[in-house]
Amino acid sequence: MADWLAGLHRRAELRAKAGLTRRLRPRAAGDAVVDLAGNDYLGLATHPEVTGAAAQALSAYGLGATGSRLVRGSTDAHHGLEAALADWLGTDAGLVFSSGYLANLGAVRALTQPRTLLVSDAHNHASLIDGCRISGAETVVTPHADPAAVARALAAAPGRPAVVVTESVFSVDGDLAPLAELHAVARRHGALLLVDDAHALGVLGPAGAGGVAAAGLAGAPDVVVTATLSKALGGAGGVVAGPAEFVRHLVETSRTFIFDTAPPPAVAAGVRAALRLARAGDGLRAELADRADRAVARLRAAGLAVSAPDAAVVSVTAPGPEAATAWAADCADKGVAVGCFRPPSTPDSRSRLRLTISVGVDRADFERALDVIVECAPGERVEVTS
């Protein structure tokens, strides 16, 4: 009976040897760490209006939703949030799930019918990849951000229902997908476009409505949008937004919606308050963009290989998984939290630090954090040319 545990131990040893050990690191409330690892882009998670709305709903409804949405879990807070999200995103309707991951699983599965072809970007998030797998549909993985490759995949399957699956801002390197071009290709071949707008919602587009809105595609009848509510909105949960008939289909058929307990009403109320602030947050978005540009300039000046961010994710290349882990640990020792991405979490087998910029961090602390990252950087630097 112990053989299976010994096998797990051996696999853990192999991961450790490859520099792929992962550990949980609990943090205390109000710790003094400069956070460039979390996703609270607009600093709304602790905003008094957000926490106040959540506290009021907590007092009114209690801790949990007490059931799935179709039983007793739907509250005024959930329905109000869904209406606000649909209005912001410019869609007919929206449906809130308990996580962005489950929203993506549900959306991909609901868009799949017999003979459907899924055309998925090579850098897509794990939730989209798992959604494609769970759907059971044939999936073609195309090179990253390559509309021509998507067109070839669709042309090779004439007459079949198809869905092009992509993120807007990709979670690893922070680059923006060519959404307008992808939509044009999809429409030309009669395919639908599914866009995970997680890292663009609140950050890009008119009034922060996301990458789909920024591309001029808001409300298009052949576009479905998903997003998490845990990044720029500082809360938890996920949303699928699109045509009303599709949202109705999700309510009646989506297993990740039907058989899951609803998000707590307090979270829904807090996210709705954050949404109001985000819509009016053009000044926050301008500061966010300025900080992202500042981070790239500072790190490149130090000879580090840095992605050019289209939103608020900055990727810094590390020599390898062990170096990335040590780099992140050294930063943590100096009071700066950074993301550490290593295979298999990276789509290209390249290790890097991921910095997520937040206007909730004091500007002086942010500047100091950039200095710490440079100070702790390992190995060879790339040559800086003018």
List the main descriptive attributes of the protein structure presented here:
globular, 386 residues, seven-stranded mixed beta sheet, alpha/beta, 15% strand, 11 strands
Overview of the structural elements:
By secondary structure, the protein is α/β, with parallel strands linked by helices. The strands form 2 sheets. It has a 7-stranded mixed beta sheet, with helices on both faces. It has a 4-stranded mixed beta sheet with strand order 1-10-11-9. Helix 6 links the parallel strand 3 and strand 4. Helix 2 packs antiparallel against helix 12 and helix 14 packs across helix 15. The radius of gyration is 21 Å and the shape is globular. 50% of the residues are buried.
Please give the alpha-carbon distance between the first and last residues. 63 Å
The run of helices and strands is: HEHHHEHEHEHEHEHEEHHHHEHEEH
Oligomeric organization of the protein chains:
single chain
Report Rg. Answer: 21 Å
Structural class: alpha/beta
Low-confidence stretches: 381-386
Report the principal-axis shape.
Answer: globular
Taking the sheet with the most strands, its summary is: 7 strands, mixed
**What is the number of beta strands?**
11
The overall pLDDT average reads 95
Strand order of the largest sheet: 2-8-7-6-5-3-4
Helices, by number, come to 15
Helix content: 40-55%
Q: Strand portion, in percent? A: 5-15%
